Amino acid sequence: METSLRYGVDSKSLVIHAKEKFPLTTFTHLQGHAELDTKIGAPTYLSAMIRQYFPDQFASLAVGVQYFRRQKLWYNVRGKKAFPVTADNSVNFHIKGKYDVDEKLLEKKTSGAAEFTWNVMDVKKDQDVRFKVGYEVIEKVPYFQIRENNWTLNVNSNGKWKVRYDL
Fold it and tell me: What is its main location (predicted)?
């Protein structure tokens, strides 16, 4: 199980996030997520999705369901495709999209992004760094991410930020 501590500009408290992947076939797994808000002491987010990988095409597709404490139940479809820029795959261009619909099929949300990632392995002994710069197409918001082993910092041009520490 992957667990992390998360805190951001929108938060009023620290959130404990957990993710688990259950293999179904070689390139398919069931993925579960949960978040526990430390201020209220209750789950605020639960998710389950089936994700199919297409390694020869550097792509994945997922369908699932999400439960938010305030927004209730949502169904979603996600897709992601990578285009290697360098021969060693250290630099990639990604396109990704997401479509969500509420439980009554009335409210819909879409998002899509294009981003470049640069993975720098062994900056120092046992230290890897990833830089990501992207653009959220629907909301027209550029963003940036830097990740160093267990630490991740996300920032966008709207002034939103989030810090994550993987345990």
Answer: plastid
Question: Residue 156 falls within a domain, yes or no?
Answer: yes
Per DSSP, the three-state class of 118 is: strand
Q: What is the DSSP letter of 56?
A: G
Whether 167 is in a domain gets the answer no
HSE (side-chain half, CA atoms, 13 Å) at 39: 8
What are the pLDDT tens digits along the chain (167 aa)?
A: 999 999 998 888 999 999 999 999 999 999 999 999 999 999 999 999 999 999 999 999 999 999 998 878 999 999 999 999 999 999 999 999 999 999 999 999 999 999 999 999 988 888 999 999 999 999 999 999 999 999 999 999 999 999 999 99
Total tally of structural domains belonging to the chain = 1
Domain of 19, in residue numbers: 2-161
